[in-house]
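Researcher: Let's do a round of design. I'm pasting the structure tokens now; please hold your answer until I've finished.
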């Protein structure tokens, strides 16, 4: 089956992946966003973004988009020719693999309403899982296309993609890649397109994110060494990165990699290595734990009575606090009986994991003995003598 422009397209999940691809395609197609969160649906219907992303906010407010959002599965799938799955697949520590139940539930629902619908999976899944799904549902119309989007820049990265990768049936994959190209602002000739088997596409996603995690871990361990030997890590990193083969990116020390993708994708790739010899992939996963231990111990040595956590978000211009590395630092400090308080404007609650949330920044700064900040910002410059951070370049 060919996926044609102007057909009704359903996108399941309105997080930063689903919402950005929905908006991208709604420029030239009728797109229905399906979500289980009534607040998200309401905001999208009102042309407001439920996530922090300047490009998404601008497109929703000012662009003429053929876009609707709904909670109703029948409304979403009826007469749709294509469903794009962008539901979250969190890593299941017990089963040592992604929890793909949401993906399979979508496929089951969609096929029950439109048996001939084409299914494109954007959710990250284990290597070989698309083949498994084709066999399970007896349906060859299932393809996989990894996303390479940054939080806070998701629509921008969809409009100006570094590459488009699609795995599965060649004709379906080719049609889907053309849909993505038609919505892009970047010139077609400047966007590499790779059509592969689905397992290769799944591997591309996991290996890409694990490489990025490796860079974060590498420069964090460099910083740990410099900190332990009283060296200026900024100078060392600058000198290392002047080599064009290494480059000046993903090199700012932090408390560890975190967020939606890197922690779970590295663990999933390690699980995929179950019967394959390896050393490096396991080291990347373990390095993140080691870094958090080191940072927490360094803060504890300062003997503070109250430690203030300044922002839980992973990066600037984002509202995502999920799996942020600083939460691991919090837990380790609290385990030593030290009181931890939190300043995070995106939180409305009075507590976060049994730690007080202080809404007033000045009060937060006054009562904190040490202020822990993954990234330095202007609002804590006046108490720099209290601030503990490994940020050396003022960037994510």
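Researcher: That's everything. Go ahead.
Model: Designed sequence:
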């Amino acid at each position: 089956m060919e996926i044609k422009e102007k057909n009704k397209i359903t996108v399941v999940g309105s997080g930063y992946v689903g919402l950005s691809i929905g908006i991208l395609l709604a420029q030239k197609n009728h797109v229905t966003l399906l979500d289980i969160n009534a607040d998200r649906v309401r905001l999208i219907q009102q042309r407001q973004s439920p996530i922090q992303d300047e490009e998404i906010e601008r497109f929703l407010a000012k662009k003429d988009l053929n876009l609707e959002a709904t909670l109703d599965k029948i409304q979403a799938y009826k007469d749709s020719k294509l469903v794009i799955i962008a539901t979250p697949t969190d890593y299941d520590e017990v089963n040592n693999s992604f929890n793909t139940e949401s993906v399979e539930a979508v496929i089951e629902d969609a096929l029950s309403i439109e048996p001939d619908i084409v299914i494109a999976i954007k959710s990250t899944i284990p290597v070989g899982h698309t083949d498994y799904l084709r066999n399970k549902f007896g349906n060859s119309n299932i393809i996989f296309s990894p996303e390479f989007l940054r939080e806070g820049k998701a629509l921008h990265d969809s409009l100006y993609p570094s590459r488009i990768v699609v795995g599965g049936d060649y004709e379906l994959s080719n049609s889907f890649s053309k849909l993505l190209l038609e919505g892009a602002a970047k010139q077609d000739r400047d966007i590499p397109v790779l059509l592969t088997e689905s397992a290769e596409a799944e591997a591309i996603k996991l290996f890409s994110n694990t490489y990025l995690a490796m860079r974060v871990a590498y420069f964090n361990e460099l910083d740990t060494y410099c900190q332990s030997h009283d060296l200026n890590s900024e100078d060392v990193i600058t000198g290392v990165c002047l080599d064009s083969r290494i480059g000046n990116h993903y090199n700012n020390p932090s408390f560890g990699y975190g967020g939606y993708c890197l922690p779970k994708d590295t663990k999933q790739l390690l699980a995929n290595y179950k019967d394959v010899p390896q050393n490096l992939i396991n080291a990347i996963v373990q390095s993140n734990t080691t870094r958090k231990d080191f940072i927490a111990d360094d803060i504890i040595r300062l003997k503070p009575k109250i430690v203030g956590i300044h922002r839980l978000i992973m990066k600037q211009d984002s509202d995502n606090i999920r799996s942020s590395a600083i939460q691991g630092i919090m837990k380790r400090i609290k385990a030593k009986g030290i009181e931890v308080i939190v300043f995070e404007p995106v939180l409305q609650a009075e507590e976060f994991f049994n730690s007080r949330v202080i809404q007033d920044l000045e009060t937060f700064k006054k009562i904190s003995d040490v202020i822990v900040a993954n990234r330095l910002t202007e609002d804590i410059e006046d108490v720099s003598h209290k601030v503990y951070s490994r940020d050396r370049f003022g960037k994510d």
